[in-house]
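Q: My labmate handed me this sequence with no annotations at all. I'd like to see what the chain might look like in three dimensions before we decide whether it's worth expressing. Could you predict it?
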Amino acid sequence: MPSLLQVVHGYPPREVAGTEVYAWRVNRELKRRGWRCHVLTATRAPGHRQYEVLEQPGVTRIVNNFPFRPLKNAERDPIIERICQSIVSRFKPNLVHVQHLAHLSSGLRFNVPTVGTLHDHWPWCPAGGTMLGRDGSPCAGPHPNRCAACHSAWCHLPGSGERALLKLAIWLSPVVSPQGLHRVWRSLPPTIRRLLPRGAAPRTGSEELATRQEALKKAWSAMDRIIAPSRFLADVAGRNGIPGVQVLPHGVGPCLPRDQPSRGPFVFLGSILPHKGPHLVVEAYKRAFPGQRGRGSNHDQPGLEIYGPNTGDPAYSSSLAWPLEGPVLPREVPGILRRARALVMGSTWPENAPLVVLEARACGCPVIAPATGGIPELLEHGRDGYLYRVGDIDDLAHSMLKTMLGPGTEVSPPPSLEQHVDGLLAVYNELLGQ
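A: Here is what I predict for the chain of 434 residues:
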């Protein structure tokens, strides 16, 4: 059977956001079908040296503890490129599938057929791919002055405090595992973590931005096929110099749907970050159900549970003034969704095709989500749940009440992971045949 190398910016169990989980599921399904697969990924691992290579069966991780870069570097890292080339030479894949180049290098090239999947706006949005302005408002699109200012506000280079902590972590690593050090860091109170001096934001100009954008455009143009899971993202990519993107909707594995509507709580599942909008979900819930302040629920007053990693500003998490359930493993998500009254999303950025929406549908769980990005392609309003105006707290609260008081929705099942991988294999086999 052919061999495939997947390239991605993070990979479970160390990184468990949507793109990372998607890559893991595809890898598992291809192995089930007999493919020889290997994953090449970046990871943030305090306690390990910068650029250290961590090997485990089927996965090679390159430690990158400083993921922020000045735009003048054009998202390139020659050291990571050399490490990647040595791994490619050793594994000798027939095919490469690039899921993401963030934290790796825009200069990566492969001498075998290469497929790329667009998961977000990162190739043309240097502020984390969110397509949001500095004030959190939707961005009309890349512009030299606007993007340079956004990147300067979003990015920070490692400060003296970060570098000192990383050195301390390396010194302690013989007696305390990096995973243990990471857990200790996450358990520190936000007030203490905020005392760590951050590095200064780089000064970014339009010339540096142009260099970065051109490098990313060349990186994606060098691939033989480009895929996006939504028509929305494919169209946006075309407007930003990456044409000819093929649409292939995501799929998810089987999940036992529930027999009847749940009387459980509303659930938010996502990173605790402003552009994911948990603050909007909390405020809408308070307006819809005044007096409710916790996770408990009953027939008349549902609770609200917020799950997700606290990877952003600790001050933002504290500002929610709501109990946080913490991160969950991918295998725990179906159980949470099967007992949820509805999955509630607060995203203010134009999301591509969130896997959690498909997971909810697979569990028979209604979804309340903003009508932005590729989300309307995943939901039929009034059947799979409700779409509301992005950022409109009153409309979100009204959708919660409709879900609470209405007769219930008949959620349709999403495409399966097997169907999605069938589509991938059609692309793979075409390229291997050529």
